[in-house]
Automatic annotation (TrEMBL), chains A, B, C, D:
<dbReference type="InterPro" id="IPR001088">
    <property type="entry name" value="Glyco_hydro_4"/>
</dbReference>
<dbReference type="GO" id="GO:0046872">
    <property type="term" value="F:metal ion binding"/>
</dbReference>
<keyword id="KW-0464">Manganese</keyword>
<keyword id="KW-0479">Metal-binding</keyword>
<dbReference type="GO" id="GO:0016616">
    <property type="term" value="F:oxidoreductase activity, acting on the CH-OH group of donors, NAD or NADP as acceptor"/>
</dbReference>
<dbReference type="InterPro" id="IPR015955">
    <property type="entry name" value="Lactate_DH/Glyco_Ohase_4_C"/>
</dbReference>
<dbReference type="InterPro" id="IPR036291">
    <property type="entry name" value="NAD(P)-bd_dom_sf"/>
</dbReference>
<dbReference type="Pfam" id="PF02056">
    <property type="entry name" value="Glyco_hydro_4"/>
</dbReference>
<feature type="binding site">
    <location>
        <position position="199"/>
    </location>
    <ligand>
        <name>Mn(2+)</name>
    </ligand>
</feature>
<dbReference type="Pfam" id="PF11975">
    <property type="entry name" value="Glyco_hydro_4C"/>
</dbReference>
<keyword id="KW-0533">Nickel</keyword>
<keyword id="KW-0520">NAD</keyword>
<dbReference type="GO" id="GO:0004553">
    <property type="term" value="F:hydrolase activity, hydrolyzing O-glycosyl compounds"/>
</dbReference>
<feature type="binding site">
    <location>
        <position position="169"/>
    </location>
    <ligand>
        <name>Mn(2+)</name>
    </ligand>
</feature>
<keyword id="KW-0408">Iron</keyword>
<keyword id="KW-0378">Hydrolase</keyword>
<keyword id="KW-0170">Cobalt</keyword>
Length: 425, 425, 425, 425
């Protein structure tokens, strides 16, 4: 097999990059990559990462050309896949997303709630620029997006650009992994219906080897979802996303977040300093052990799974963020949903959903409503829409809280929100 | 015109009854009532009311036969309209609905939130019995329902019985009344699109005399909706139900409810004692002045409006609670919605809604989801469904709160919830 | 009441004009018209009609200013209603519509089938020009359209212009008139569900005075629909449009059309010569008797009914051609349907349809599919779309017939189809 | 791999059986069949077939247990797949389906039009009995149905029984095979959107290796669809089912059918005599050469494809007849459609269809409307429904033709239509 693939990694200064490299290396038999380009605007991190990755592929005995650039034109020209994993404003901005909402008694979190909305506000304008360049320099390439919040990013790009994009998250595959582990069966034997959005979703009708899981098996599987009450999951008889903890256990989670010494962003900021010291160490050619504490596992597995399904046209069942187009009948066509798809070289085709679990359609509708308003606000910079989005969010809803919170968040993130400050507003 | 109508008033012991009598009296030209039957299970109040109404119609010079009974068979046989205005458990039960949720930091209210759900749990089984007797004794009669929560009662009856029912609330006509008053135009000149549910609805695209209201007119109209922030209504550019205050100003309302001396139910309990003393006074043949403090205006206006539109086949535009059947595309066919209808002898036909205000579809979906789960729980007495309904409610949502709250409410209302305690559970 | 309405009649040279004048005269109490402007491109007929109408209103003792013009600017400025009743190519073109399809064994008819499509192709470009001038000179006026085929004209104008348009046909009210006559009840007592399109529709669930019609009454009503087999209507238990004869009795109707001496268009051409001689007779101030043979009754009744409902804001139930917007769930939002509406100053609001008669949804879908393709072809002049429209038509369907027929029809009507011959094609 | 599969072949006396055996033999590596049971009500043909199949598997060196029975209980107990390929009334009944409609100027064909409806009327009651026994004796088995008309049979079984059924036809895979052959690419590289029903469907948006086919490639592919006008397919830019010839070239096909010496059924009747003589020949252990003239190729390929996808849980893309459930938005949920599915051990999950080719939605709707009415009539034996179904069929539509034709067909097939002659009617 001739080597033929060129992969551009946008936001390559991320500490995740080596895991993606490792994954590609492990799949070298099926994914014949000839070239990996690292792209970042942070030249210092980019240079450290380029150095490390070059040592690392030597260590892995992985024969591939690696180079870095800050030019999208160079990175994208000829690319087959553009992996995007950016965080605009970095972990510093994330810390605002985590801390400010807490002052108002709300969940502070990078993808869920107010924090997620501002994450979207910061990331979407940049992702649109990136996608416009994909349109220009490699129109047939697939964008493999991991930038959070991936559902909102995907919906925004679908609206404004004409690109092929897969909005990824390991969350959609997690019920498979949980069941495989809990029941000791190969994951490929496991299917389920999947309703919802990124970080707001529910799996049900699970089958193993074509037969429904038993109640006992179900109970064992949901034990893996440690963030949500087991009793509640039994009552629902659904496997929820771990992130639904913020909806079902709001009060307790707010309390816990308030009590913690450091926010997740603060911890990671520290951790990353350590990790980058190790990356920068020219004698080191292996993944830093500290990385394990960093979290975010499953990332490269899903990303490479999608690339493999596309490149090798394997027709794989995967859960991905795509435009609804009638899949979920109570949502709009252009709403991006997270849903089970048939993935092949022809792209992602959602599987029809025959029945919905009645208990959670309202919650999914409400969160999607927030998402679509937030996407529109992120694109236009319309403050009234941003306020409507916040009030539409089930975790906010109270106008009296939303109003001042919005102002404080806008002010805090001002430097990364050009769309809201267009005319010097 | 020959007198021909027989009207049965179920729950006639309610202090509202005289207002309904007064309204019928005022419409004697168009609604030729020959007989009004008062029905109640509280024989004491029924007897007082019968005495008063007989004096009152004499005072009004209203020539109609009035009598009372505790037999549904007698009351319903030959009836044209069955007006239902029952409150199961009375204001005593209502006080639990108001007080217990507050202990959990939630809105305590007779139609919105947890309180509304338990109100539905108590009322629905009784309303089903009543409707079954309507089926039996006067199958062509219309049930004019005012029992709260009217949307859930209507949905339950549609599910279980085969009766003609109009679920009423003055709320749907209020934007008309507000606009008529604010702008000094006849109310018949005013139309609007109306999206939502009882006590969770939004009016928009208002026209006067065929032309859209101006921004200035809009600002004047919303001043009448004193419970919701004017700024927020301007941002939404929608006229909300006054009850949306509990969603948009939750924190403040909870605080206010906590700080009040007496709950609404407690005040009314006292007030009603005074009102009934006046009703019982055999020298009195006029509506007690205390009644004005009782609230609930607009009731007889809407009820008689519907009877008139049906009896005289006038083809009136009215907002009523009816089965969705495709009117709102993101809700199920059997979901009862509050919506603008063409009302004639042929019943209520909802008007198609061409466009939805994007900012509030999630909230409406979420509340409807709660409602449908609650209706199902009210009919079946399934505790798991009741718990799902509570968690689906945007004002509750937190499982950790919902779980103990449900238990406490079930216990408090035990005597009125036979469906939940079937097997001595 | 001050006189205030200005009405512009487009295509006023039509022999129908005096009936419209007569209708307005009869409703002078409720429709205070101060000015009627007659507009036509045929100056000879326009002049005859102006002369006659002036004598006629004197005869009717109807005090209104009547004048004529060939300038749309003059006619439309200040107009409240623009009545459009044009026939592009006149009855001569109509005769092609009637005769050419017959050569191919198909129905030849001015609104149904191939003939109707070419009628649309000729009329739509002219109606678009008219509507653009309405936008310009009297943007608040309502277009009261009677130009055939009214459903396609309405859909085209909705697509291309921004005007208020009511697509009228007496057909939608005919089941009411039939039932009123057959059962001797006032027509206002009669309601029904109505599914379909102009000239392809079905009435059902009919009620009189709020109660369903009996089987015997139904049998009496359908006797009025003389063009369709009584047995078949009994089997369907639906009241069809008279025009459905061309679908349910195709073979027989083709035979009859082939055997007739003259087509309808030819007869009318002769009749109109006679009618116009009478109109031109300056001693004559009354409607010619010959007019009765002309047909098309009910026209002014429906047109004036709509103007009255709008002007006086009466909230009437009427069947009108409007955009679907979710009324019929299996058709697109922008598909124009003929449907029961609530008509007021606020326009036409379709009533939700709860259930569809299963036997005819396919036929309605197929004809609507043809219509939407034909509208698109009429606007764009795309011959491929015209061919697809013809093959989509249930009365054509056979490609081998459609292909040469399309060519022959295009050639015959060439002078009136600028959109298909744009580049001298 | 242990041998483990038991396959029951219902209607095993069909001349197709050996091809199915051959297919199974070719896939012995992936489909480890231990037992094949032949079931038929025609004991003579069953005995001949059993004899031949036993010689044939020896010839193929295929180690499997083959035996025959007339007992469904014996055949089904323990079965994993039940292959159904029955023809009620045999080719003799088929000949009526072909000949009688022609007398009325209509297409006479075993699956399309009147003939297809009566085929359904004969087959559905028998298939329901079979399915009830599957429910009873092997509830986890998949019914692999090839009995014509497969869409109607599948819809009927979904309505009345609770079985797992795949309604098969080679037609859905044909565009793949055509493209693979025309362009010399592996078939697995080819995908398309697929809209419609069995024998009334259209493929579009075809991709090869992830990229859209070029116009030139499209032109080459459609050359394989020899029954439909190339020009017309170019105009549509769709790949139609070969059976759409009966809709797009009706007149010509009727003429051809009228002119043929023998109907297809008559030819096959003769052919089968010859084929069965060869099967009966105890010295013969190979497929008769005459079989090639028999037609119906692709049968075993698709049937075994589905069994393989299910048994080995391979997640294959295949076109299959399944319940709609929102896949095609303008059709009912329980309407069976032919559509692209993801096939695994978990069954068939249709892929969402994002856009529909506008030119043919009406035709598909109309045929589906006929189908659903026909299924209902086939189950209930309601003659009015049968008449409505016929008139709803685009190839019939004329009531005057449908009425006597229905009577003649009912009479001809009387012996096989117990549901229509329940009370000696």
């Amino acid at each position: 097999m001739n080597k033929e693939l060129k992969i551009a990694i946008v936001g390559a200064g991320s500490s995740y990059t080596p895991e993606l490299i490792e994954g590609l290396s492990e799949h070298r038999e099926t994914l014949p990559v000839k070239e990996i380009v690292l792209l970042d605007i942070n030249e210092e991190r980019l240079s450290i990462m380029e150095g490390f990755v070059k040592r690392y592929i030597k260590h892995l005995n992985y024969d591939v050309k690696v180079w870095s650039t800050t030019s999208r034109e160079e990175a994208f020209t000829g690319a087959d896949f553009v992996s995007t994993q950016i965080r605009v404003g970095g972990n510093k901005a994330r810390i605002f997303d985590e801390k400010i909402p807490l002052k108002y008694g709300l969940i502070g979190q990078e993808t869920t709630g107010v924090g997620g909305m501002f994450n979207a506000f910061r990331v979407i304008p940049v992702m649109i620029e990136i996608a416009k360049d994909v349109e220009k320099y490699c129109p047939n390439a697939w964008i493999i997006n991991y930038s959070n919040p991936t559902g909102l990013v995907t919906e925004a790009l679908n609206k404004v650009c004409n690109v092929k994009i897969a909005g990824l998250c390991a969350g959609g595959m997690r019920p498979r992994w949980w069941a495989a582990e809990a029941l000791n069966v190969p994951e490929e034997k496991i299917y389920y219906d999947y309703l919802g959005l990124n970080h707001m979703n529910f799996s049900y009708n699970m089958t193993i080897d074509g037969r429904p899981v038993t109640d006992e098996e179900f109970s064992n599987i949901i034990k893996k979802c440690t963030t949500v009450s087991q009793d509640w999951m039994e009552t629902l008889h659904l496997i929820p996303s771990q992130y639904t903890q913020y909806y079902f256990h709001t009060k307790e989670r707010v309390q816990q977040l308030k009590e913690q010494d450091k926010t997740r962003g603060e911890s990671i900021l520290e951790l990353e300093k350590q990790i980058f010291r190790e990356y920068a160490d020219e004698t080191n050619d292996q993944k830093p052990k500290t990385l394990a504490k960093r979290g975010g596992g499953g990332y490269s597995k899903v990303a490479i799974g999608v690339m493999d399904a596309i490149y090798n046209d394997t027709g794989k069942w995967m859960v991905i963020n795509v435009a609804n187009n009638g899949t979920v009948r109570f949502l709009d066509d252009d709403a991006v949903i997270e849903t089970a798809c048939y993935v092949s070289k022809n792209g992602m085709k959602p599987l029809t959903i025959a029945d919905y679990p009645k208990a959670i359609v309202g919650l999914v509708s409400a969160v999607k409503n927030y998402e679509s308003l937030a996407v529109e606000a992120a694109i236009t910079g319309d403050k009234d829409l941003a306020l409507q989005a916040l009030v539409a969010h089930p975790l906010v809803r109270d106008y009296d809280i939303a109003k001042p919170l919005l102002e404080e968040m806008l002010e805090a993130h001002k430097d990364y929100l050009p769309q809201f400050y267009k005319n010097g507003k």
